C-alpha cells in the first residue's frame, strides 16, 4: 500500500492544495492524499479529475469537492453549503452533516451524506446520485432534472418542486410535496435501484422496500405539448 | 454577506477569555463584512463598594468621546449625582459610565449637558456595546476586546447593503435594557413596522432595518414576553431574510427566517454555546473537536438562559 501524501492546511494554502490535486492527470496513480486541519476552509479539493483518494480530516467550508470529476473524497466532519456541487464523476462522502444545496447541479458520481442534509439538497440535480443517511431540509431536489436522491430519514417542505426526470426515494415522513411532484409506485426496478445505491453508500442493512418513490407528475406548463412551439 | 459571531458561556472557566475568543471569531469573519465591526459583551453585575446587596449599578455605554477628558468627565457626572457615585472607563471614542441604577435618568441628563457630543448607545446592568468602522482586527484592537471578560457576547462584521457605512449603522443594535441584536440579511417590512413601533413609544436612531428588529423584540419583551416568545412572535411579524443572534442580561437566542436564507452553524459543549456564520469562525474555540455541531433549523426558536 502506498504511503499517504499529507498536506497540512496549517502550512500549505488552499490554492497550493487545489493546484497540486488539479495537476494530477486522469491516469494518475498517486496513492491516498490526507488533508489535515481543514478548519472549515472553503473550496477544498475542487475540480479534481484524477481517480485519487482524498481524506479531508475535519469540518469543511463551502463547495468542498465541487466539480469533482473522478476523485474519491471523504470528509471526516460536517460540510457547509454546496458540498460536491456540480460533481461530474467520482465519490464524495460526508461523515457528518451537510448544509444547504448539497450536490447542487451535480451531473454524475455519488454523493453520500451519512448525517443530515440541509435545505435544497440536490437542487437542479443533473444526473448524479445522492444518498442521505439522515433527513433532508426544505425544497430538496428543486427542479432536479436527472439522477436519484435517496433519503433514509425525513424530507422537509416542498420536496421535488418543479421536478423533471429525477427520481426521489424517502424512507421517513415527507413534510409536503412541491408543485408537480407526486408519489409513484415502488416496483421491483425501483427497489433494485435503491438497494444498489444503499449498497454503494455502505448502508446495505437498510431495506430498500421500506422507501417510497416520488417523481414528476409532468403537469407543469413546459410538459404540455401545446406549449412546445413556445420554445 | 455580513458575519455573525456569538458565544454564550456555561462554565465560568472561560469567562476571562471571552473577549479574546470573540475577537478571534470576528477576525475570521472579516471577509464576510469588512465595512464595520461591533460587539456587545456582558460582564459581571457588580454593586459599587458600600452599596446594599441587590442595589445594582447600571452601565451606560457612551459613544462620541474621542479625546475626552475622562477624569474631568467622571468628576462632572459625580458632582451632579446625589451620593456622587460614578465611575467612567474610556476606551478609544467609547466610554462606560457606571452609576447607581436609580440615578440612570439623572446621569443621562447630566451627560447631555457636560458631554453633548456623546450618545448613550446601550444601558443595562451587564451590557457594554462597542462599534466602529473598519476591519474586525482594527476595531477589536481599538477597544482592547481581547482583554474583556464576561459571560456572553455577540458580534458582527458588516457588509453594508441597506444603509451607509457609518458607526451608527453598524451592529449590534441595542433598543432596551441589557438587550441587543445582530442580523445577517435584510428586512422588507421594516418601514411599516418602525411606524407601528414608534406609535408604541419606541425611539429609533437610524433608518436601518436591523434596528427595527431589535426594537420589535424590545417591544415584545416590554409587554411581558420571554425572549423565546418574542422570537416566536417575530416569525409572524417580520418579513424578509434574517439570521438573528440576540442577547439579553441572562439569555442568548438564535432565529432564522423560514427559508433559512442566511448561513448559520452552531457548536455546543459542556462549556459553551457558540454561533457563527461559518464554521471557520468556530474552528479556534477550545474543545471544538468534541463539540456537537449543528445547523439551526429554519423558523425554529433557539434560546439558552443562564441563572441571573
UniProtKB/TrEMBL annotation, chain A:
Domain of life (superkingdom): Bacteria
Gene3D superfamilies from the UniProt entry: Glutamate synthase, alpha subunit, C-terminal domain
InterPro entries to which the protein is assigned, alphabetical: Glu_synth_asu_C_sf, Glu_synth_lsu_3
GO molecular function: oxidoreductase activity
Protein name (Swiss-Prot/TrEMBL): Glutamate synthase
Natural source organism: Acidisphaera rubrifaciens HS-AP3
Automatic annotation (TrEMBL), chain B:
PROSITE patterns in the record: GATASE_TYPE_2 (PS51278)
GO molecular function, one term: transferase activity
Keyword Repeat (UniProt): no
Glutamine amidotransferase type-2 domain sequence ranges: 2-308
Entry keywords, A to Z: Glutamine amidotransferase, Transferase
InterPro entries in the record: GATase_2_dom (IPR017932), Ntn_hydrolases_N (IPR029055)
Pfam families: GATase_6
Keyword Transferase in record: yes
PANTHER family found in the cross-reference section: AMIDOPHOSPHORIBOSYLTRANSFERASE (PTHR11907)
Protein name: Glutamine amidotransferase
Organism: Acidisphaera rubrifaciens HS-AP3
